[in-house]
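Response to reviewer comment R2.3. The reviewers asked that we include at least one raw input/output pair. We reproduce the pair for Hemoglobin subunit alpha-B here without editing.
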Amino acid sequence: MPFSASDRHDITHLWEKMAPNVEFLGEEAMERLFKSHPKTKTYFSHLNVEHGSAAVRAQGAKVLNAIGHASKNLDHLDEALSNLSDKHAHDLRVDPGNFHLLCHNILVVLAIHFPEDFTPRAHAAFDKFLAAVSETLYSKYR
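Raw output as returned:
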């Protein structure tokens, strides 16, 4: 999926805003996912997924750090996310529909915490980016 110059700018800008707060923002995105889609908790049965848990904070940070890595590799998402894609498809066997659910919650968190930066154009760019990340992650399911 090609990204325009303005897409790249907006993706990079939003990631720079997110990067210092990956634990907090990631935790909120994960908690929103679990609250709005409780069935997603089944993939984390080995963790304490209650509000404020260290496990949710760590998982959220892991997710957002992977997104940060992807944001620096927009032209090579397949290579950048290959190991993560393999893990989700073959080891964790996560329902690929859950990627979309998490992406939606990440967008909600961005809109809440960065309203000045989350313009309609930035929203569209980051949504496009997260869709490309999701598509890359579930590419190994085929």
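Helices lie at 5-18, 22-36, 54-71, 77-80, 82-91, 97-113, 120-137. Residues 23 and 58 are 7 Å apart (CA to CA). Further pairs are available on request from the corresponding author.
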